[in-house]
Amino acid sequence: MIRARYCVLNGISLAIYLLMSHIVLADDISLRTDYWCPYSCEEGSDKKGVLIDIVEYIFNRKGHTLNYRLVPWKRAIAKTRSGEFNGIIGAFHNDAPDFIFHQEPLAYSVNVFFIHYENKWQYTGLESLAQIRLGAALGYSYGVKLDKYIENNKGKIYLASGETPIVDLVRLLMFKRIEVVIENRWVMEHYLKKLNNPIKILEAGISSYDPVYVGFSPVNPLSYQYANEIDQELVKMKRDGTWMKILNFYGLLPNKLTKLKAH
């Protein structure tokens, strides 16, 4: 009888332990990003963004709840660095080198130089930027070389701030207040499709292809766990077709299949 009672208690203890383990692991994960549609779109929308859908799918499979909000990018980085938020979605390594990153990219970003249709300028290297006034988004990373160029030439570069810098940049480009805008190809395509009046903007060269990640807070001890979970599930998603289905839902193809074209 004593032995049997001991076994029953062991079984109850095991059940309680497993339940408590589940509760501990089922986290509410706060991730922040800015408006970068179709990567990250309006909160509560049927299409919250391709990156949001990928990460939410992964964390749901791990028993977590994704809590994401749109905030200015520099604020998202600063408050994640301090530990107020768990991470930032849509990050490049160069955005926050001290953050914790997973290995497998969520997607790729193609940064393209856009010009007014009457402009004949073409990007042939950093030296060709000396001829024009460039517009970019404040606090964004465009790759190591271009970031360094922007940092060293702030006096001749227009840096748009706020939650939707693309609106300001396209407006200034069409009024010829700036001559070239550096922007993500998918983002520009998405924005132009939303406008009632078509705007003639041409691609004038590619700056970079960059992998995109979730960057987790360097002061949160769970950051490594979350990064590992993304790696585990993301590999499975790409193998079983789930990742591709999410891209197709937004009318996207992997960026390596996206060809250079004019808008």
Quick tags:
globular; D-Maltodextrin-Binding Protein, domain 2; alpha/beta; 263 residues
Radius of gyration: 22 Å
Tally of discrete structural domains: 2
Helicity range of the residues?
Answer: 25-40%
- Count of DSSP strands: 9
Mean pLDDT: 86
- CATH fold description of the largest domain: D-Maltodextrin-Binding Protein, domain 2
Per CATH, the class of the largest domain reads: Alpha Beta
Q: Strand share of the residues? A: 15-25%
Mind telling me the CATH superfamily name of the largest domain? Answer: Periplasmic binding protein-like II
- Which ranges are low-confidence, i.e. pLDDT below 50, for 5 or more consecutive residues? 1-24, 257-263
The DSSP helix count reads: 8
- CATH architectural type of the largest domain: 3-Layer(aba) Sandwich
**Quaternary organization:** single chain
Question: Span between N and C termini?
Answer: 80 Å
Shape descriptor: globular
Order of helices and strands: HEHEHEEEEHEHEHEHH
Structural class call reads alpha/beta
- Profile the largest sheet: 9 strands, mixed
Give an overview in words.
The protein is an alpha/beta fold. It has two domains: 129 residues, D-Maltodextrin-Binding Protein, domain 2 (3-Layer(aba) Sandwich); 100 residues, Periplasmic binding protein-like II (D-Maltodextrin-Binding Protein, domain 2, 3-Layer(aba) Sandwich), CATH 3.40.190.10. The protein is built from eight helices and nine strands. Strands 1, 2, 3, 4, 5, 6, 7, 8 and 9 form a nine-stranded mixed sheet that branches. Strand 6, helix 4 and strand 7 form a beta-alpha-beta unit. Helix 2 crosses helix 7. The termini are far apart.
